[in-house]
């Protein structure tokens, strides 16, 4: 009788612990698959298109890091080397991808003219005058 209770108790404990192990293992497996799916493809910019490469090359020619004969209109090894030298001389990272500070210093970043900063207030004023024309008089 005692061995029967012991066997029954052991079987009960074993049967209760197996589903918990299986559920934990299944959940871990599904989380791993989600993680793998999320990081499966390349992210970010893969290459620089020819139009942008031409702009960068023109700026590098203007600053003396590239000659006019070296400007090919493509993001080639000569252009990459010139950009790396430019970035290195300015104390920035020298990866193959241009640093945003280098792009800005070459004059190819966002425009910083004064009309852009005044544009929202002038558009508000013009919107107010258009809105006033619809009011009953």
TrEMBL record:
The residue ranges flagged as biased composition, category Low complexity, are: 114-137
Per the UniProt record, one Pfam family is: PG_binding_1
Cleaved signal peptide residues: 1-22
**Positions of region (Disordered):** 108-137
Q: Tell me the InterPro entries matching this sequence.
A: Peptidoglycan-bd-like, PGBD-like_sf, PGBDSf
Query: Carries keyword Signal?
Result: yes
Q: Which UniProt keywords apply?
A: Signal
Peptidoglycan binding-like domain location is 53-93
Q: What is this protein called?
A: Peptidoglycan binding-like domain-containing protein
């Amino acid at each position: 009788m005692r061995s029967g209770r012991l066997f029954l108790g052991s079987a009960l404990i074993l049967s209760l612990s197996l589903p918990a192990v299986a559920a934990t293992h299944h959940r871990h497996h599904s989380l791993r698959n989600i993680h793998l799916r999320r990081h499966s493809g390349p992210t970010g910019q893969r290459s620089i298109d020819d139009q942008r490469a031409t702009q960068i090359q023109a700026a590098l020619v203007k600053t003396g890091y590239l000659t006019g004969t070296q400007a090919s209109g493509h993001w080639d090894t000569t252009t990459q080397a010139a950009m790396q030298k430019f970035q290195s001389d300015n104390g920035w990272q020298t990866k193959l991808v241009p640093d945003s500070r280098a792009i800005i210093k070459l004059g190819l970043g966002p425009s910083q003219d004064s009309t852009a900063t005044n544009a929202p207030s002038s558009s508000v004023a013009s919107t107010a005058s258009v809105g006033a024309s619809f009011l009953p008089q």
